[in-house]
């Protein structure tokens, strides 16, 4: 007999995907809302993706994965 596959009830809010899936842990770890980090990236100026990632890593001691997720979201929303 095949194993049953558990499925999420359809009445629950779907989990975020992509860069947004990192947002709850970013807010918890760094103590600032995502809007704060979007403002930080905007103030950094017209930099390329990896330049923005490195800015968050060096100036705000952010981990690479979190910085990359924020920058990907920021660039997609420009």
Automatic annotation (TrEMBL):
InterPro entries: DUF4287. Residues 1-10 have a biased composition (Basic residues). It holds the Pfam family DUF4287. Residues 1-20 are annotated as: Disordered. This is DUF4287 domain-containing protein. It comes from Caldimonas caldifontis.
């Amino acid at each position: 007999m095949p194993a049953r596959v558990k499925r999420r009830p359809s009445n629950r809010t779907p989990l975020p995907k992509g860069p947004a899936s990192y947002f709850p842990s970013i807010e918890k770890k760094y103590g600032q809302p995502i809007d704060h980090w979007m403002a930080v990236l905007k103030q950094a100026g017209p930099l390329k993706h990896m330049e923005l990632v490195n800015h968050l890593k060096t100036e705000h001691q952010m981990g690479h994965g979190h910085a990359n997720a924020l920058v990907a979201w920021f660039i997609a929303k420009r």
